[in-house]
Specification:
CATH topology: paralog of FGE (formylglycine-generating enzyme)
CATH architecture: Alpha-Beta Complex
Distance between the termini: 46 Å
Radius of gyration: 20 Å
Strand order of the largest sheet: 4-3-2-5
Number of domains: 1
Shape: globular
Strand content: 15-25%
Number of helices: 2
CATH superfamily: paralog of FGE (formylglycine-generating enzyme)
Number of strands: 6
């Protein structure tokens, strides 16, 4: 994908319909990377310095700290990340923030920590992470049973039946 298309580059990815904010549960799943500990790097907060931009006086360049086990950078510290979820259904309702910030505490960077902020709030300690959205058609196709998974396979690809 070339940079000349800018934010429309997603159109070149088959089945993609655009980008969206992560739901808070998706964010936590990605942050934890299969762990059940306080941080994706374990329960020892002294390890965070390699993975987390905090405490500090400003955010760091994205990706300058080590990634979690699944390869995602900046899941702890750096900036709070806006999530799609609201705290209630009213217009202008605060949205959920995850991840902690460079100016926060070690506890605010825990994988399970949640904050909130009004959509109109702006801060150098807040940012966002985007997810690529699949099309409804490709999601339905993936969810349909395939009947053994050999449809569309060539004769060489199909297993021999007894």
């Amino acid at each position: 994908m070339g940079t000349d298309k800018g934010y429309e580059a997603w159109e070149e990815i088959p089945g993609a319909t655009g980008y969206r904010l992560l739901h808070a549960t998706e964010w936590e799943y990605v942050c934890r990377a299969g762990t059940q500990t306080e941080w994706s790097v374990g329960n020892d907060e002294t390890l965070l310095v390699k993975f987390c931009q905090m405490p500090s006086s400003k955010s760091s360049i994205v990706g300058s700290k080590l990634p979690n086990a699944w390869g995602f950078h900046d899941m702890h510290g750096n900036v709070y990340e806006w999530c799609f979820d609201k705290t209630n259904s009213s217009v202008g309702s605060p949205r959920v923030l995850r991840g902690g910030s460079w100016g926060g505490t070690v506890a605010s960077c825990r994988s399970a920590n949640r904050g909130t902020s009004a959509p109109s709030d702006r801060s150098g300690g807040m940012g966002f992470r985007l997810a690529l959205s699949p099309s409804i058609e490709s999601s339905k196709k993936e969810a349909e049973p395939s009947g053994g998974g050999t449809e569309g396979a060539t004769a060489e690809q199909r297993p021999e039946l007894p």
